[in-house]
Amino acid sequence: MDLDGKVTIITGAGSGIGAACAQAFAAKGAKVAVVDINKEQAEAVAAEIGSKAYACDVGDEAAVNAMVKSAEADFGDVDILFNNAGIATGSDLMRTDIDVWQTQWNVNVMSHVYTTRAVFPKMIERGDGYLIQTASMAGYLTSQGMLPYAVTKHAVVGFAEWMSITYHDKGVRTSLLAPLGVATPMLDSIGGSFASNAAGPIKTAEEVAQMVIEGVEAEKFLILTDDIAHTWMGYKQTNIERWLSGMRRLQAKLDAAREGAK
Ligand SMILES: NC(=O)c1ccc[n+]([C@@H]2O[C@H](COP(=O)([O-])OP(=O)(O)OC[C@H]3O[C@@H](n4cnc5c(N)ncnc54)[C@H](O)[C@@H]3O)[C@@H](O)[C@H]2O)c1
Questions:
Q1: What CA–CA distances, in Å, run from 225 to 5, 112, 156?
Q2: What total of structural domains would you count in the chain?
Q3: What per-residue confidence (pLDDT) applies to 191?
Q4: From the CA of 84, how far away is ligand 1's center (Å)?
Q5: In sequence order, what E strands does the chain have?
Q6: In the chain, count of helices (H) and strands (E)?
Q7: What was the pLDDT predicted at 194?
Q8: Domain residues for 217?
Q9: How far apart are the first and last CA of the chain?
Q10: How far does residue 5's CA lie from ligand 1's centre (Å)?
Q11: Centre of ligand 1 from the C-alpha of residue 227, in Å
């Protein structure tokens, strides 16, 4: 899809990957609605690109519907919906409270359902629209130490695949962004040692934004941020038992490093 002139909603656009994508999409001529729960950050990004900010908790359906209505009133019908907002709270099974699961489920998964339901009827009527969903490699290959994150990101992969299978040929195309480590506040919050041990090569948000642009222009479903991800996905697909053994060995190493650091 050519991005020039396209009305684009980007969620989680106040920081990290979303902010870099807002810049990159605007540079390509897209009209970007900068959406974030953090009003100040959204306003700062919107000011940089000469656009508008929308303070919205994407885990709240009523707030999402109101945000989409405002963005449509300001820019016109939505061409591109980029579901990028996400959180990485929680840790392992017994140390994660149920309300942490519920919040992460709302923000990482249900937000995609709410926003997509808000823009989809007009897209399918036109036979033209584009959905971009940010999952993570954690959604294909799991994530050491962060159970709710791994589970919710698998759900994002499932949602994106289902939409692509069902609606691509009817004009609503989908891309799935599944990054490895990206240098953003989120990566800082989950710990640098975790990142360097387990998350593979770290990219900048700007590099990822360029990959998203290229992926969407080519209308490619899967946007990976490093070739090593293909290799790791291949290991899982060709021999799940062997892949699980390798992941358990990596987990044991991380456990030992954490014990050593105490
Ligand atoms: N950084 C990484 O290494 C990495 C790797 C794989 C996937 N991802 C995914 O990329 C996406 C962007 O993450 P990032 O690394 O840029 O993180 P980030 O923390 O820099 O940005 C996330 C943004 O989402 C916003 N947000 C959080 N909850 C929200 C809510 N309820 N409603 C609206 N906005 C909300 C935050 O305010 C923040 O501005 C996330 O979905 C994340 O899971 C990140």
A1: 26, 21, 17
A2: 1
A3: 67
A4: 6
A5: 7-11, 31-36, 52-55, 80-83, 129-134, 172-178, 182-183, 203-204, 222-224
A6: 12, 9
A7: 46
A8: 7-229
A9: 51
A10: 25
A11: 22
Nearest CA residue ID for atom 8, ligand 1: 136
pLDDT tens per residue, range 136-174 = 999 999 988 899 999 999 999 999 999 999 999 999 999
Give pLDDT tens digits for 167-204. Answer: 999 999 999 999 999 999 998 888 654 444 556 789 99
CB 198 within 8 A of CB 136: no
Residue at 1 is within a domain: no
Prediction pTM value:
0.96
Q: How many CB atoms lie within 10 A of CB 120?
A: 17
Q: For the chain, which residues score pLDDT lower than 50?
A: 193-196
Report, as residue numbers or ranges, the catalytic residues: 149
Q: Looking at the domain assignment, is residue 94 inside a domain? A: yes
Pocket of ligand 1 (CB under 6 A): 11-12, 14-18, 36-38, 41, 56-59, 84-88, 107, 134, 136, 179, 181-182, 184-187
Residue 69 lies in a domain: yes
Could you tell which of 15, 175, 202 is best to mutate to test the pocket of ligand 1, judged by most ligand atoms within 8 Å of the CB?
15
Provide the 8-state DSSP code for 219. Answer: T
Residue 199 pLDDT: 61
CATH number of the domain that residue 78 is part of: 3.40.50.720
Q: How far apart are CA 44 and CA 29, in angstroms?
A: 19
In a domain, 242, yes or no: no
From 184, 211, 226, 232, mutation site for ligand 1 pocket: most ligand atoms within 8 A of C-beta: 184
Strands (E), 84-162: 129-134
Shortest-distance atom of ligand 1 to CA 20: 16
Find the length of the chain: 262
